[in-house]
Amino acid sequence: MNKSALVVFSGGQDSTTCLFWAMKNFDRVEAITFNYNQRHKAEIDCAIKIASEFDIPHLVVDMGLLNQLAPNALTRNDLEIKVGEGGEPPNTFVDGRNLLFLSFAAVVAKQKGINHIVTGVCETDFSGYPDCRDIFIKSLNVTLDLAMDYTFVIDTPLMWIDKADTWELADKLGRLEYVQKNTLTCYNGIMGIGCGECPACILRSAGLKKYLEKKEAAQ
Asked: Which family, according to UniProt (predicted)?
């Protein structure tokens, strides 16, 4: 039986690296993107463009209800992005986002006869988001299996690596330059290198700098 995977895909650095990882490791790959009226619609356009370039069947799902239920800095342009203090997650954390995204992805995957769901969550650089933890993914995997009487495997290729390692993975997959130029991670909606000031850009650029220094030292 051919292995198949559905990638939860935002068009950002992590999910795009996961898409390329899935393309290497599975015979059949599809992608799913969620429109929850996020701060910048540009990321949806970015996801559509990347999927189209690589002939990946791609579904965009309307999740506008999430915006209504959980207003925060990722879903409201009038809220300033703030880093969490005292152990609290930053105000870019959307309650229930990964729970809902992975649950809806599982529904779609089952309808398509796909068992593997690939997501770019990472505990090493999880920025205080509780739904990026390995324990949550494992728990949800069991729940989805039981809820649908179907065997799912939630693959998390980035779970135990940092941003520098994520850049290294993209490079090993032959896609370093592509990910640099064609993905959107910036909270302010700027493609590629981004604004350089938001938490996502700082994490992304620091990881790239660390990886390139490591690569240069090894040569």
From this structure: Belongs to the QueC family.
